[in-house]
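Quick sanity check, MOSC domain-containing protein:
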Amino acid sequence: MAYGTVTAVSSSAGHTFGKESRESVTLLAGLGVEGDAHAGVTVKHRSRVAQDPTQPNLRQVHLIHEELFTELADAGFTVAPGELGENLTTRGIDLLALPVGTRLGIGDDAVVEVTGLRNPCLQIEAFQEGLLKQVVGRDATGAIVRRAGVMSVVRRGGVVRPGDPVAVELPAGPHRPLERV
């Protein structure tokens, strides 16, 4: 079992691009982050609600690896935890390489299940010009590569704080690679 660490937790009651850093957040099973605008059984992201408000919410908790911020800084961008809309910022786990269904045990009680990749939107470009090209690109074969974190659903609730350990439990194989959700 691989381990990482939570470095920041963030939430926002409104549909804002960034989320405010907190001392802790409470994850609610089947819903997401307590008090966050994206919590719920069905989709809460505005574009998805417009398409079909009855879709299941596979984007209850957004996680980004802190290492991305270092890469962005090397490219001339300054991004702090929560500013890209993530709820949990982690260190020490290659979130983008995890397969669908990976469970992350966070802190003493919480468990989230990874559902897919975040599909970055144009709001990232409005936040900082040129940033979208840093978090979405193409690999050598021309396939789209999304680097703006992963989405998950809450399987077991609990309080999460910066400094909490994150344990990675891979699903039984064969593993399916993450796709956008």
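Posting the structure with no commentary besides this: The mean pLDDT is 95.
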